[in-house]
Amino acid sequence: MSIIKEITTHIRSRKYSAQQVVSHYLDMIRQCDPPMNSVTRLLNDRALQAAAEVDHLIAQGKDPGVLAGVPFGVKDLFDLQGEVTTAGSKLLSKNQPAKQDAEIIRKLCEAGAIPVATLNMDEFAYGFVTDNAHHGMTHNPHDYSRFAGGSSGGSAASVGGGLLPFALGSDTNGSIRVPASLCGVWGIRPTYGSLSMQGVFPFADSFDTIGPFCQTIEDLKLIYDVISGDEYTSSSPVTPSELRIAQLGGWFEKDVDDDILQTIQEIMTLFGKQKKIELPNIKQVRTASYLMTASEGGKLHLPFLKKSPMEYDPATRDRLMAGALLPVSSYLKAKEIQYWFQQYMAQIFKEYDVLIAPAVGSVAPEIDNPVVFVDGKPQSARVHLGIYTQPLSMSQCPVLSVPIYRKNKLPIGLQLIAKPHHEDLLFSIGAVLEQKNIAKASIIERNHMN
């Protein structure tokens, strides 16, 4: 069921006004968000004014757009007119307010959607846990003692926590896929370069992408169609037996919980396939991704690091400084590996339509025990939660984050990977998995309007 279409139907039929819907969500955030800490600012005046404009259009018999009156949240690195884009930092909080919305925000607003909040993130999107020195920790909506994931943790938690129908985030090396998995929601990292980054604060230009978090696969496709400029058409249905699908083994099986591997097998059986492949040199690919991200991020911030180093979260500052000091030769070697990997993946997709892999190796780590396992040894969750997402960022392929619902258990998630510009195939497969009750978002039920 589409949560978004339900909202727009009620508003168009005038069962509720857009102002009532927006006020309801604003009140719900005020009441329910504090222990989760997903929201950094409420856009109260802008939201209510926009809602009044939607109601006025409907009263005149005009079409306010496919997303008429739907509230949403924005990771705090997207420009919002009249607001300071902080990227989760104290450093940028002194900047002038944005003069216009980011391109993606403009498209959503033109379709009738209404931004109601900015959302918490790791400072400058550098991290996997949304532990922000200035705004605090975002907690997992399903267990406040655990991480929400990052860096788009506020976005994933607000949707998984039932506070927003959808939210925007960004993904450099897993910042949509990791929190979507840990918070139990749908998310997508689109094909690199396919969506406008105008008005989005950068981290690493070679990898930065943006995308939505949603409660259903239908909603995810709808929001993607709006921000990508596609017409709002249905994805072509897929016949599982006709798809060429392969499981990624090796690196993508190590330190992965049995529940996740069993779910992958269930999906492979559904599609009538038992093919498993290993991507070569994947450890080197991940290292190259890490080096390129650190180098590009470090060089971007170097002028600020020289001028105002104490304005940074110490953990972020140290990693950015280390990246800025990496030799050019290391970066160029990493770029060579990226080019090789993209060529290799292009060959893989001549044989297969879709690849499947874990997005995370386990449920969300405990905040008091912030570790994940790498080669059987405990390592920092802040650094290593993206161990299965980072290598795939090098491919520039679209990746769907699929929430695997397990009754009375914490969420986990998988990655479905297709060749560039084949997002529709991923949406179609996601719809099949949702229909078969293999994939389902884990959403905290709130006192919604009905």
UniProtKB/TrEMBL annotation:
Q: Which residues form the Amidase domain?
A: 21-426
- GO MF entries: catalytic activity
The signal peptide, as residue positions, is none
User: This chain belongs to which protein, by name?
Assistant: Asp-tRNAAsn/Glu-tRNAGln amidotransferase A subunit or related amidase (GatA)
Pfam family membership, one: Amidase
Q: What organism is recorded for this protein?
A: Commensalibacter communis
**Listed NCBIfam families:** amido_AtzE (TIGR02715), PRK09201.1 (NF006631)
Q: Which domain of life is it from?
A: Bacteria
